[in-house]
Design goal:
Oligomer: single chain
Distance between the termini: 14 Å
Radius of gyration: 21 Å
Helix content: 25-40%
Number of strands: 18
């Protein structure tokens, strides 16, 4: 299907074809055959190996979007991907055919005021794979072959599984969140919410020198993976009703909170167990929340957001390549692309799955 063929009628080459996983409307997934884009200057063609299903993909699948972001027309999903370079445009030297790469889905314009200020994750003209934030939508990378810029590709070291390289994007989100907290060396860190981002945040905190990482969630299944990812202690807050009182004594325990659930109650509980001048980094997305202004003032707390990433993508791949983080516990299931619907449905059940991957080589 991906081989170039010749038109009988016109005697000229036809474009190679690939399969793309498209969302048409809530719960309406379909594999659609399309032309592979032509390579331009500085671009490469990558044959996809693995793609991780993200929370945003699930929002599109179940609800057609999140907040004010809504699908207005069919869109290819996916942004957590890795594969093998199949071809490169003339003059490309960053990678060569046969190289295994993780692909950065973030494509800032490099020309707007925020890019020029060194804040490319806040780009005014961002083209992020699999996003309906702008219209026309930006198609994603859940496709058998993808043309991308060579600068988006980070080499995967020999012996490193491509399924782990596909985790570079969500791990980058966590590394950026950790950077928003300031130095973690010797700090006590609370991770609230142990979905894929929360569990990867544990690894990010550990590699940045946190002295202790405590993870809290409402299910034992997710907490088991949190322990495998390096949490020193895990707490099921649904069954341990006294945990806040223990950790809030003497004005609190934790220096940093990485809030990954987006849950209002989790944020409020976290504020109670923070030490004075602690830093709360909000990574999880949710609705509107209410907080105690008195507590923020009295404890002199800092609350900040964290959005996507930029330079952290290369760091994420480097840490994976060097074996400085072991992200294998996060990957709980792999599905052939022919079972994409089953993969999305399982990925939606946090009691049964953590990170679910699509295997583009399997049938």
């Amino acid at each position: 299907m991906n081989d170039t063929t010749t038109s009988i009628d016109e005697g000229r080459p036809l474009r190679p074809r690939c399969l793309c996983l498209m969302i048409n409307s809530p719960l309406d997934l379909a594999w659609v055959e399309q032309d592979v884009a032509e390579m331009g200057p500085g671009q490469v063609l990558v044959t996809m190996a693995y793609g991780g299903i993200c929370g945003s993909d699930l929002h599109y699948f179940h609800d057609g979007g999140f907040g004010t972001v809504r699908i207005k027309r069919p869109m290819t999903l996916g942004h957590e991907v890795a594969g093998t370079v199949a071809a490169v445009a003339p003059g490309v030297t960053r990678v060569k055919p046969g190289d295994r790469v993780a692909i950065n889905p973030s494509r800032p314009c490099a020309a707007c005021k925020f890019c020029l200020e060194g804040l490319p994750n806040q780009c005014l003209d961002m083209r992020f794979y699999g996003s309906a934030m702008r219209d026309p939508h930006i198609d994603g990378a859940f496709r058998t072959q993808l043309v991308c810029d060579a600068v988006q590709c980070e080499l995967v070291a020999p012996g490193v599984a491509l399924e782990l390289a596909a985790l570079a994007e969500p791990f980058s989100v966590c590394l950026h969140g950790v950077s928003r907290a300031g130095p973690l060396l010797g700090k006590r860190v609370l991770v609230s919410g142990c979905g894929p981002i929360g569990t990867l945040a544990i690894a990010a905190a550990r590699v940045h020198g946190a002295a202790e990482v405590v993870a809290v969630d409402v299910t034992d299944e997710t907490l088991a993976i949190a322990r495998a990812m390096g949490a020193h202690l895990t707490i099921n807050v649904a069954s341990d009703k006294d945990w806040v009182s223990r950790y809030s004594a003497d004005k609190g325990t934790f220096d940093v909170m990485l809030e990954c659930s987006g849950n209002n109650a989790a944020l409020r509980s976290g504020m109670e167990v923070m030490r004075p001048r602690g830093v709360i980094v909000q990574l999880g997305l949710g609705g509107d929340v209410t907080i105690s202004q008195n507590m923020v003032v009295a404890k002199e707390l800092t609350i900040c957001g964290s959005f996507r990433f930029h330079a952290e993508f290369a760091l994420a791949v480097r840490l994976i390549n060097e074996g400085r983080v072991d992200l294998r516990p996060v990957v709980t299931h792999r599905f052939p692309v022919s079972q994409a619907r089953e993969a999305f449905e399982l990925a939606s059940d946090r009691s049964k799955a953590m990170k679910v991957l699509l295997d583009f080589a399997a049938t």
